[in-house]
Structures are given as structure tokens and as C-alpha cells.
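In this section we turn from sequence analysis to structure. A common task in structural bioinformatics is to predict how a protein folds when a small molecule is present, because the ligand can shape the pocket around it. The inputs are simple: the amino acid sequence and a SMILES string for the ligand, here zinc ion. Study the lines below before reading on.
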Amino acid sequence: DARYLLDDAHTTVFSSPFPQHRTIRVWLKRDSGQYWPSIYHTMSSPCSAMAYHHDSRRIFVGQDNGAIMEFHISEDFNKMNFVKTYPAHQNRVSAITFCLTSEWVISTGHDKCISWMCTRSGSMLGRHYFTSWASCLQYDYETRYAFVGDYSGQITLLKLEQNTCSIITTLKGHEGSITSLWWDPVQRLLFSGASDHSIIMWDIGGRKGRTLLLQGHHDKVQAICYIQLTRQLVSCSADGGIAVWNMDISREEAPQWLESDSCQKCEQPFFWNIKQMWDTKTLGLRQHHCRKCGQAVCGKCSTKRSSYPIMGFEFQVRVCDSCFESIKDEDRTSLATFHEGKHNISHMSMDISRGLMVTCGSDRIVKIWDMTPVVGCSLATGFSSR
Ligand SMILES: [Zn+2]
Ligand SMILES: [Zn+2]
């Protein structure tokens, strides 16, 4: 399970793309433009998560055995000194975040818990257990809210205190395990990607429970990154798909699926509606749902398929016949761009200020992408691609 991070200010990639070697490596960009490994450290157990804090040059590496190791990187990036080990989890560490102001290192793991530890003393401050593996983590530094995604498909919002925590709410919407989370503290939006191939945007700041569904991937969504400046969401899936979503337009919420005992178009009973089947002497039909209006419909009343990008459906989905008629050609204009990663992406990280993206594949290859043509960040920050 390889991990990497792209340093914000230096052209440096920290990576451990070779799990069987159990190493953490620092790659430096040489004058030739090529990246070369400068230093590495061998770990006792495979690396499973990583957090790098640029200003203090501290790096936290979580391992399969549950421990987190902290290192300090020298100013010239040619030395890596071991600082301490944190007994964070009983099992694989899945995500780490470091908060300098509170001096906390917060992590989630496959022992079903979130733990937060003091980086000064190295001691455990608090822990909270979930009912399934905690797979990803986002943290709001100002309010101390932690978002934890888990294997059951649930996201828990907790407020962390010095030694305790309280559960604020749980977010349920995915039909598969949560594989990635992204919190935008400015617009107060939470994005979640899941093994059900979908992404959900949770409008936390709006306080009205508004959610937007984004369906454009055909495999597990492995990583997401929201670019606040341009209001674009970048997402990567396990099949190598890279999507850039335009979030700067007013999108529509996908409807709740309605329940009915008979087709809401032709009124024929569904097969479990024995009474009506008996009364009308008709055979029950299979229930489907129109993705646009949410009505429960039979197959005959929903023969057509259409994309509907304003609701997040970038590929063709089932719609009822009347909804199909209502969708105009211009409504089918895509609101995302799709790109080929050409390897099975397991992780992704972005250096938003320079418009660079790093993908790491199950093929153990680390790719660095110039995303400025699609995300257009360079205009705002003065970065020019070579
Ligand atoms: Zn029908
Ligand atoms: Zn419909």
C-alpha cells in the first residue's frame, strides 16, 4: 500500500512506493529535471499512511503494525532523523493528520478507532471506537472537528477535546466503504469518495443537509482533492480514471428514491404486491427507479437511458419516459472532464499552488502531472509549467 506526498514549496516527493522494501524515500528534483532518491529509511513494518508538515519539516509515517513513526527532515532534504514512535493503533494505520497549534497527531486505523496523541510527550490523549474499520480522516484545525469515513460506508463527525470527544452527527449516503475524504474549511464542504464508484458533496456549512451526487467513475474512488480557488474537484479511481468536476455552477440534488407498491407511471403492481396482483389478475413487475425524478417505475415505463450532468450523472442512467422527454440536448453537456491516468491509481496528492498532481499506482510507479491546463491554477499563483 504505497503512499506519497508532494511537498508544497520544494520540488520534492516523499514516497514509499515499494511496500515490500518497507522504506520511506525522499526524492529530489535535480537540475536535469529528473527526480532522484536522496535519502531513505527502512521501516519495521510496511508503510500504510503518511503526513508531512512542511513548515516544521516533520513527517509522520503510519505502518501496518499500528505504530506511527515521526521523523525530522533536514533543511537541505539530505537527512532524515528519527524523532519518536507513537503506539497509535493495534492494526494498520489508515490515515494521519498533524496539527501544529495543538501539537496533536491524529490518526485512524483498522482497529476501528481514531486516536489523538500529544507530539510533545508522545502520549495518547484520547480514543474513540467505531463499529467498523476507520478508513479515512479529515480534520478542521479551527473547530477541532474530525471527519472519519469507515468500511460500513458511514462518515462520523466528531468534536475532539483534550481527552474526550463527542459525536456531532453521522452522514449516511454511500453504498460502499468510504475510500477518500476531503474537507474544505472555507466553503465548509465535505467531499467523500467510496467503493460504490460515487462521490458525495456534503454541504456542512449550509446546515440544510444538502448533498450532491457525482457519478462519473467506473471503479472505486481512491482519492479526491477540492481546489477552492477554481471550485474544481479532482478525483481518481482505481481503474486509472481522473475526473475534474466543475463545482462552480449550481448543481441539482439527486432525488430520494420513492417507494411504491405499483408503477407510478402505468400503475401496474410490483411483484410483491400480491393483493393488487390478485385483484387485477395481472403479473407483478420489477421495480426500478428513475434517477431524475426518483419515482418507482416498471421497466416498460423506463426504457430510455440518459446522462444528466446537472444532477451528477455523467454517464447514462435509467430515466422514466417522461423525464427522458424533458431532458434537452444541452442538458447533456458534461460538467466534468475525464482523463486517463494509465495506471491503477491507489493514491493521489495535489500541490494546488503549482497545479501539480502525483498519482501512485499498484504498479509501484509514481507519476507527477502538470494539471495547469485543466485546473488553471497557475494564473492565480504565478506558476508556469516548464
Ligand atoms: Zn410502468
Ligand atoms: Zn422520471
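The radius of gyration is 23 Å. As an exercise, try to locate the residues that line the zinc ion site and compare them with your own expectations.
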